[in-house]
Amino acid sequence: MSRNLTLLTFSLILLTYKLTCASAGGPGWNYHEGEAGGPDEWHVNFTDCGGVMQSPIDIITEEAVYSPILPYFDFTNYRTTRGVNLTLINLGGHTAEVLYQGAPIYLQGGGLPAEYKLIQFHFHWGAEDKVGSEHFIDGEHFPMELHLVHQQKTLANLSVAEKHPFGLAVLGFFFQVSEKNNTELEPLLKYFNQIALPDAKIHLDTFPLIDMLPENFRKLDFYRYYGSLTTPPCYETVIWSLATEYIKISESQLNVFRGLYESKDIHLVNDFRPVQPLNKRIVITTKNSSKNSSAQPSTRPLFLCLSLVLAWTYCRMP
To answer: Which residues are designated catalytic?
Structure first.
């Protein structure tokens, strides 16, 4: 009888564990280095996190190859507000995310291999100004980084796109601290007190996304490379474009982000993955300077036409 009771208890515990894992979407993970589920252990439960084309990276500007045929982005569609529905979410205590639904918003130009539709945007920030961004520029951290996530237009949904080669196009922006508030961020920040706890969400008044971008968005220089999601499952399916123009933000506005919670008693800060090895990848750029113009003119067009294919094949060679 005692043995049967023990087996029943064990079965109930096992069932509870399975249900908990199912409701959480699989194994847990966090940003706490050195702790269980931290970035150095992601590859254990998510094998792609140990791949050779992982993100983020440290972009060394002198090594980025200038491409004269890499076009600028056209952000005209980012003005769209009619028929757009926005939801702000404290996503699992990992980030602040704005989900886009309704009328589609497309990212145009930029030399992308297909049309890409905006799905969501989210942020990564630090507990202090000297850290926060996921990507580095010449070894430099920024206090915050914005990711605008787009999926290929023809793919069914984000779950399909994130597993599909070149399925996602992510446009990243770094933030720079200024003395004055950036008023263009207020339509978003005014709602943050209502998403303090994990998984809290609220519908937003629609605003044109283009207002958040740097003033020089019409000729926005950027760096381009092929990489991965920066959170588990770390699928290597992302075309990354990182803008060279920064978005302004004040210290008090950064503190609004830092006021969110990862859990009931822990503030949501330092939600960035450590930089990953570049390995054999090539970073190309629209930004022309004497430091990154070493490639011969006759070979430069190949970087735009072949860099994505080379990244997918060459990086995976043993």
So the answer is: 94
